[in-house]
Design goal:
It is a single chain. The protein is an alpha+beta fold. It has 2 domains: about 140 residues, no CATH class; about 240 residues, 4-Layer Sandwich (Anthranilate synthase), CATH 3.60.120.10. About 25% of the residues lie in helices and about 35% in strands. It is built from 9 helices and 24 strands. Strands 2, 3, 4, 6, 9, 10, 11, 12, 13, 14, 20, 23 and 24 form a 13-stranded mixed sheet that branches. Helix 3 crosses helix 9. The longest helix is centred in the middle third of the chain and has 18 residues. It binds the ligand C=C(O[C@H]1C=CC=C(C(=O)O)[C@@H]1O)C(=O)O. The ligand C=C(O[C@H]1C=CC=C(C(=O)O)[C@@H]1O)C(=O)O binds next to strand 12, strand 16 and strand 24. It is an enzyme of class 5 (isomerase). Belongs to the isochorismate synthase family. Keywords: Isomerase. One of its GO terms (molecular function) is isochorismate synthase activity.
């Protein structure tokens, strides 16, 4: 039974919340040493936030907020605060991610802006050597959580997606490249400095896609990324919008990209050229500035490195900057994510001009792509990534998925190169939906334990 809350009519008011009964217990590390969080996931009502085997997965839904529009973050913050205040919690660990936890995924744009915050019925977590189980039930209902043995048995493995074909989404490649050229003209005319333009791709399989297959594959192939699943949005993002852990705020900003070649020596030379590319450094600087400016009112002792490093992923390399600060105002991770969205890594500079150019040139609704995705706990700790390198499973027809990728456009951008960059960013999810030539098994790939 899920307590689902509809969008409230009062501005910024949160809907009534159920009173939740929450219990976290530590799992015996000897008994559960091999616990693979993603492999426990059920096919329905599953949520995940996992990197290198650590993180959180959720089973079922004890409560959910569906929210839309420009006030989606403010309403979600209120709902979360009310839930956390009224919950009865017994937490024998008391670390970030234990006790009451909600997983969320927010739309990029205000309109229509459909977003969700989900409190699972069961959360399994792992941080270092510690593993825990949290059960959440709605008072006064009986705590009908799934029986524990059923959680630790491996659920039937997901089937490999069959016969997936890909097609252009809103725009063909050529149309999208021409939209990039339009954006460059607008930048040259002085309307704005940077805009991030995205495109979508449709994937259609012969049978409904079990999201757990691509999720396991992408987690295996992109271990440096945060693998996530919230209400049909799945992916592995390399970009941490904000993490809040016991008062320490960190963020990993990415912008500026070069494709990899499968030749290590060549890739090293390309990484060096990326680190010197004035076009990419400019694109990166806007993104870092936007995050630093949005965090500044909430933090003291901010550390913003002067120059980026190069983050190597299997498909691309990015300019990356890790920012850190000390929380000064008691904001929760969810409030910080709301303050940071949309950063110039996914929108542009100045933000309002970039937002309206995106609406004009992309010809699609980004949905929850490029919005914050992650989790928050009752103490306000949490991790919110930017939902990149993702696919949205169609809730009405799960044979269909929409994939998204975007590129930062500045004055020196070349449309054909941006199109190639967008294709490279689609590779992780595309590959995860197509047969792996090295894998002869019919079931989901096992994850390497760190
Ligand atoms: C918007 C995306 O990437 C962002 C993050 C890293 C590098 C980016 C770039 O170089 O354009 C983008 O700012 C995407 O992957 O869809």
């Amino acid at each position: 039974m899920t307590e689902s809350s509809a969008i409230p009519t009062d501005e910024f008011a949160a809907p009534d919340v159920p009173r939740l009964v929450v219990r976290t217990t530590e799992l015996d590390p000897d008994v559960h040493a091999g616990l693979d969080l993603l492999q426990t996931l059920p096919a329905e009502e599953a949520t995940a936030w996992v990197r290198r085997g650590e993180g959180l997965v959720g089973h079922g839904e004890a409560a959910r907020l569906d929210v839309a529009g420009p006030d989606r973050f403010a309403i979600a913050v209120r709902w979360w605060d009310k839930l956390a205040e009224s919950a009865a919690v017994r937490d024998e660990i008391g670390e970030p991610g234990t006790g009451l936890v909600g997983f969320g995924s927010f739309a990029f744009a205000d309109d229509p802006g459909h977003s969700a915050l989900v409190v699972p019925r069961v959360v399994l977590g792992r941080r270092g050597d510690r593993r825990w189980l949290t059960t959440i039930s709605v008072e006064p209902a009986l705590p009908t959580v799934p029986s524990l043995p059923s959680l630790f048995g491996t659920p039937p493995p997901p089937e490999r997606p069959q016969g997936v074909v890909f097609a252009d989404g809103a725009l063909t490649g050529a149309q999208w490249a021409s939209a990039v050229a339009d954006a460059v003209r607008r930048i040259d005319a002085g309307d704005l400095d940077k805009v991030v333009l995205a495109r979508d791709l449709l994937a259609v399989a012969e049978k409904p896609v079990d999201f757990r297959w691509p999720l396991a594959r992408i987690a295996r192939d992109y271990p440096a990324c945060w693998t996530y699943a919230v209400r049909g949005l799945i992916g592995a993002t390399p970009e941490m919008l904000v993490r809040l852990e016991n008062g320490l705020v960190t963020s990993r900003v990415l912008a500026g990209t070069i494709r990899r070649t499968n030749d290590d020596a060549r890739d090293l030379a390309l990484a060096a050229s990326l680190a010197r590319s004035s076009k990419d450094l400019e694109e990166h600087e806007y993104a870092v500035r936007s995050v630093a400016d949005s965090l500044a009112p909430h933090c003291t002792s901010m550390n913003v490195p002067e120059s980026p490093f190069v983050l190597h992923l299997p498909n691309v390399m990015h300019l990356a900057t890790d920012l850190a600060g000390v929380l000064a105002d008691g904001s929760s991770a969810l409030e910080l994510a709301a303050a940071l969205h949309p950063s110039a890594a996914v929108c542009g500079t100045p933000t309002p001009v970039a937002l309206s150019l995106i609406a004009e040139l992309e010809h699609m609704d980004r949905g929850r792509y490029a919005g914050p995705v992650g989790w928050v706990d009752a103490a306000g700790n949490g991790e919110w990534g930017i939902a990149l390198r993702c696919a949205q499973v169609d809730s009405e027809d799960p044979r269909r998925l929409r994939l998204y990728a975007g590129c930062g456009i500045v004055a020196d951008s070349v449309p054909e190169s941006e199109l190639a960059e967008a294709q490279a960013k689609l590779v992780p999810v595309r590959d995860a939906l197509t047969p792996d030539p090295n894998d002869t098994s019919a079931s989901a790939p096992a994850l390497d334990q760190p």
